[in-house]
Amino acid sequence: MAKLAFLGLGVMGYPMAGHLTAAGHQVTVYNRTVSKAEAWAAEYGGDFGATPRAAAEGADFVMACVGNDDDLRAVVLGEGGAFAGMADGAVFVDHTTVSAIVSRELAAMGAEAGIGWIDAPVSGGQAGAENGQLAIMCGGAEAQFGAARPVMAAYAKAIEHFGPVGAGQMTKMVNQICIAGLVQAMSEGLFLAMEAGLDAKKVAALVAQGAGGSWQLANRAGTVIDNEFEHGFAVDWMRKDLGIAMEQAKAMGVSLPVTALVDQFYGEVQQMGGGRWDTSSLIQRFRKMKGQAV
To answer: What are 24-50's pLDDT values in tens digits?
Structure first.
């Protein structure tokens, strides 16, 4: 069993860190809001540090799941950052969805101090984190990935290595692009079914068994039809992720026309006050256009 630190106790990080203690690891957490770290320690029996550095001292692996590029830099760098407390040979495992650029930047800084880096963004949402069923896409040195993999297994159903640092973040961009297109297609299909007077849930159940099936259809059709969106992965975060993907694609000279359109639609959902709604809330645009309650 390893000595670990976990930085960031949001809806993802809180249960992920809990799975690590359940697996027998010694875990010290850090969270910007101290009361949440105290609550986690009381629930799971681990410890908490006042700073990322304090949490990371003596850790074999430091895991992080924070908000964005700036949040990641804040917990990694500086006098109170994790790097300042990590020893030569320790590995930082970043589960945040950030740009490949910042992953490579921080990995290079860590390498100068003998610290390894694995970019390991996750897919599966809050339910996946709570149930220990996340899919993790990784970039970094093969040996460091191999060392970190058994630790990540505490909250994963699938873990794959895609190449050097940044490869995990590039794979997560693909993941978010695919989700955006699927959710828009599901929204259009289900709204058409409802407007046609069909039993939309019955339609979704059947379509999910054929070539039109998807995780979104199997897991979100019911709540979409019932107009329930106070759960899951927020629109605000999805727009952040799609922005990263589109910026990367632009730098590579790759066109993402559908992604750009769906990002625009998510912007409309934000304007409706749905920034914290689940990403499946794209259907609300159709309800609004038809003058229906949203």
So the answer is: 999 999 999 999 999 999 999 999 999
DSSP state of 87: P
Q: Does domain 170-289 have CATH number 1.10.1040.10?
A: yes
Mean pLDDT for each 10-residue chunk of the chain (294 residues)?
96 97 97 97 95 98 97 98 97 97 98 98 94 98 98 98 98 98 98 98 97 95 97 94 97 98 98 97 97 88
Model pTM score: 0.94
Beta-bridge mates of residue 284: none
Interatomic CA distance for residues 252 and 95, integer angstroms? 24
- CATH code given to domain 3-164: 3.40.50.720
Strand partners, 122: 136
Active site residue 240: no
Q: Which of 36, 157, 172, 240 is catalytic?
A: 172
- 8 A C-beta contact, residue 129 and residue 11: yes
Torsions phi, psi of 65, nearest 5? Answer: -150, 90
- 139 within 8 A of 170, measured Cβ to Cβ: yes
Domain ranges of the chain: 3-164, 170-289
Sheet with 3-7: list strands edge to edge. 47-48, 26-30, 3-7, 61-64, 91-94, 116-119
